[in-house]
TrEMBL record, chain A:
Residues 3-229 form the ABC transporter domain. Pfam families: ABC_tran (PF00005). This is ABC transporter ATP-binding protein. PROSITE patterns: ABC_TRANSPORTER_1 (PS00211), ABC_TRANSPORTER_2 (PS50893). It comes from Paratissierella segnis. The keyword Ribosomal protein does not apply. Keywords: ATP-binding, Nucleotide-binding, Transport. InterPro entries: AAA+_ATPase, ABC_transporter-like_ATP-bd, ABC_transporter-like_CS, P-loop_NTPase. GO terms for molecular function: ATP binding; ATP hydrolysis activity. Belongs to the ABC transporter superfamily.
Automatic annotation (TrEMBL), chain B:
The keyword Transmembrane applies. The lineage of its organism: Bacteria, Bacillati, Bacillota, Tissierellia, Tissierellales. Keywords: Membrane, Transmembrane, Transmembrane helix. It comes from Paratissierella segnis. This is Uncharacterized protein. The keyword Transmembrane helix applies.
From TrEMBL, chain C:
The keyword Lipid metabolism does not apply. Keywords: Membrane, Transmembrane, Transmembrane helix. The keyword Nucleus does not apply. This is ABC transporter permease. It comes from Paratissierella segnis. The chain crosses the membrane at residues 21-41, 189-209, 230-263, 283-308, 315-334, 340-362, 374-393.
Amino acid sequence: MELIIDRLTKQYKNKIAVDRISLTLKEGVYGLLGENGSGKTTLMRMICGVLKPTSGDVKFDGIDVSEEEYRDSLGYLPQDFGYYPEFTACDFLLYMGSLKGLTKIRAKEKASELLELVGLSDVSKKKIRTYSGGMKQRLGIAQAMLNNPKILILDEPTSGLDPKERIHFRNLISRLGKDRIVLLSTHIVSDVEYIASTILMMKDGQIILQGSLEEIIGAIEGKVFECSVDKKTAANLIANYPIINIREESDRTFLRLVADKPPCETAVVVPAILEDLYLYYFNEGATGNE
Amino acid sequence: MRHKLKREVKLTFEAPTPARKESFLCQFDYPRASQFDFIKAQLGYIRKRVWILSLLLFIVTLFELHFYGVSTSFVRIMSSVLPFISLISISEITRSVTHNMEELEMSCKHNFLEIFFIRAGILGTANLIFLLSILFLLVGKTDFGFFRLGLFLTTPYLLNCYISLIVLNCLKSRDVTYICGIVTAFVSISNVLITIQINDIYTEKYWTLWITSFIVLAILSVIELVKLIKKMEEFKWNSSLTV
Amino acid sequence: MNSYCELIRFEYRKILRKRSNIITLFIAIFITLFSCVGPLMGNQYIKGEIYETNYEGMKKDREYIRSLSGREVDKSLLLETIEAYSHIPHTDGKYTDTKEYQQYARTYSEVYYLIRKAYNLNDWKEISTIVEDNVNNFYHVRQDMVEKNIEDTTMSATEKANSVNLSRKVKTPFIYSYTGGYTRFFSQMYTTAILICFICSVYIAPLFAGEYTDKMDSLILSSKYGKNKLISAKLFTGVSFSILLSIILSAVSFVTVMIFFGWEGGNSPIQLYLPLSIHPLTMGQVALMNFVLIMFGNILSAVLTMLLSAKLKSSFMVIVIMTVITISPMLVNVSEDVLWIYHLSNLIPVNMFSIGNIIDVFSIDLFGFILMPYDIMLVFAIISSIVLLPFAYRSFKNHDCA
């Protein structure tokens, strides 16, 4: 099982949204991290075949993205998806089932199973227009899994979910990643940290980092410091280092920052986490001064 | 020399962090936008296509008038086209609903009701100017006379306004503009069909029917408009409770 | 195949679940019924006083005509008509308001219509100028008038010859019959056809554009059948819906009209309705032809709607454009002087609905093939629908979700 993305590019007039990305994805959960406008959604749309790339290929086990067989292996949850307001959740899943080539009986079975899984079985006969944002998102996740896809593309699957639901889905996605390719994008760094076997970090349409959590965190391991300093020193450090966390205390300021060497005498090295790395790469103003 | 000195001083001595900067800035009374500025701003938010389409229609009227003169079929054309002018205005007014902007607008200083009034006022005035210009252009070139011509042209327009207002009052969905489009299409097509099928529709035989229809539709439209305003006021009241 | 049917079922479900669509359908059926019987409502006034209701008037006319049914339109019937009309006094007002018209001439009013057209009378008073010899030659006079009409057109010699030949195939003498149901059906079908066209636009406009506005496009296009079977299912739904609606509303019109006006007259020549028609067809054949062209005109209109729906991003714009396409031909009168423009204008779906355009006096020489307007309309509707469908298909398939 191999999803090969080869020099995939998308250019809009004078902006390159995705710039010659080449990746090979195998079974596992891939977490796509990047700031707004970095090209995550564009990349995912091209992988799902709903956006034509300017150049490059996407192939799954040799099957091109444009082929029906490819789409048969695909489950996709778009970032901003719609629904038919006059349909019930059950109708919606049956409709999506028919689009995914499931027989009516199979679609019914699968729909009720998934509705149970996402906790919507008791409201399955209610019209979708009465659903809350979180419920719609859960329904979206259910439809993506209808055809038991080999490739699961989830664009911000946990947005709109409360913390309990998020943890529930994190675990679910983690389980799904055992025997399929799951690519998910999110702004919630901790989600990726917990479930992604491989992390892909995107910036300006390119993959700038790729690897397991340990591998990519290695880049800043020993460089994350915490210190509690006076206001004047704090102002100086804020101006010169990528700051991960600031907490105002009575007459001092607590800082967590990234630096090559201890930024002040009181600074102590702490273990790095993914959020540190994310902020390190996307805190442009400060990284330049480092 | 003085600049150099300033720079040196800046480098040598560190400036203290500003104290109570926020509260200092807050005490200034910044100039607020006047009502007129707001109207001007709203005028700018009305899409260009409204003006372009209205102007285009006016030019087509002049063109038709020049080549074909005023005939029954000309009145038929104009009265079938005028509902589209009202549709353009309605689609502009309902933009907030269509683009899910009403919650934002309701919570601002100038709320949804004010925005609605101003937009409706601007567009209504534009429609009136358009209608009057056509009437003045046509009058004297036909035997119908100013008022009769006005009736023939405005009755389908009023019918469209009335049904569209009902739609606005009864429905609250993104589809509202689309349904108003259906209403306009229906009114326009019916107008053409009826005026073609009933040859003498513009004659004295139907004069009473025209007057009655006009008055009834005008009253019904005003009633629906009042309902719409009340609905907006409820929105305003509700949002004032929740904001 | 099962999945394909399932997809079509869902498309129909999407259409029929919308409240606005159901309301529109009921309004359309109501308007159809109302316009079918509309002419029967109200009264006939003579000198400001109610003379009879329109319904009574229709029944009376029907009985009069039925009393003459089965007779040949020959010298004796024509002379009877002339004689009956000679009783009407010369008045300033409408001659139909006179007692004499009601008493003597009303029974022959339809025969008078044949005479007026054949002898090119401008006024009923001229009927008395027709001499007996001329009455004997009614069919010659009529044929001369038909040929003069053909000659007066700007058709080529070949086309004219074909029209003349065709007109000579019209069977004479005409057997007089009551055809009120069919003649009402012909005028009703124009309104019905426009209604079908309008409703199809309303129902079909969101077929593709609705997926964009509902933000369902990315889900659909990433699904197994989203780029092939579903699009075909949508296209099938659009076309089949226009066919179904054409059948339903035409049937409603036909049955309503026939119940109120009478079922007979299907085998009578079309010339009883259009005396100078060149076509050797019966009322029933023309009614069928009218229905077929309305159906295919509406299929073409549905395909156009689907193409616009796939191309444009909102159903609203589709509705506006389709309304303009529907009403503009009704408002613009294309001259018959430049025939190719006239024939082209008749290929707009709305113009295919008019019986006057379908069985016109014209023959059309198309690259050596002599065709009739209805042939061209039908072939055009079929071919252009087939040609446009793949464009709609490709347009949705290649849509980029942004």
